Amino acid sequence: xxxxxxxxxxxxxxxxxxxxxxxxxxxxxxxxxxxxxxxxxxxxxxxxxxxxxxxxxxxxxxxxxxxxxxxxxxxxxxxxxxxxxxxxxxxxxxxxxxxxxxxxxxxxxxxxxxxxxxxxxxxxxxxxxxxxxxxxxxxxxxxxxxxxxxxxxxxxxxxxxxxxxxxxxxxxxxxxxxxxxxxxxxxxxxxxxxxxxxxxxxxxxxxxxxxxxxxxxxxxxxxxxxxxxxxxxxxxxxxxxxxxxxxxxxxxxxxxxxxxxxxxxxxxxxxxxxxxxxxxxxxxxxxxxxxxxxxxxxxxxxxxxxxxx
Length: 309
Prior knowledge:
Elements: E1 2-8, E2 11-14, E3 23-27, H1 31-41, H2 46-49, E4 59-62, E5 68-78, E6 84-94, E7 97-102, H3 107-119, H4 125-160, H5 164-198, H6 204-269, H7 284-306
Parallel strand pairs: 3-7
Antiparallel strand pairs: 1-2, 1-3, 4-5, 5-6, 6-7
């Protein structure tokens, strides 16, 4: 799908005739749309095809003019409460317009459309690409906050009981944080290059937007590092709790085995075919039972005193 936009009355407006525009939005483009863009703007085909690869890493590419023509960033996509993935989005600057390419209709792009109007930014590709990059960093921050809420719920669950769901959620969250960490780390050089390329802009709004972009990216990386550290510590705590509970169970079972061994030994001794004390006594059985109970009771007291029961 292809959408074209221009500024009218300080609002981002979709171009109906496709003649007036400064932004081309390609969403999961078909082959015909790709061929038209490649033919018209004479850009390398990998600028567009790279986005179709889900594992494509962020990068900057400089074309013949010496200016950075491609900014490729990773952005987060929410799968469920604990699971996130990252996907690439391509921003191509050519002939004073911006071409964005993504594999699906992104919420953050809709957010850009709204904020672009609120901030009253101009009809230039630099401001638009900076705003998109800021929205991506902001989306990472928002996603990490949601993951932190899930981590807090897991903390409460782990302290109460060893829930298998909590364990599986921990694995999913760790996987999401690893993806976020890799994505923001790879996005960093791209954003720095963007700041370097746009730093000559005279507009106060553009300069402020560039500053906000750097701050938001730094905040996203710091939050991801903190959440990753918390998650690692929580995983260690969970493992220690499981080990402790297992040790307690084994300790109790071992103590019970020791106590139950006493009647077995007493019964084994008086079951031998040799002369034994009180073997002819009419109450010999009850005497042995009482003896076993007394010894077992004494052992239980010792085990309790030592903290094994």
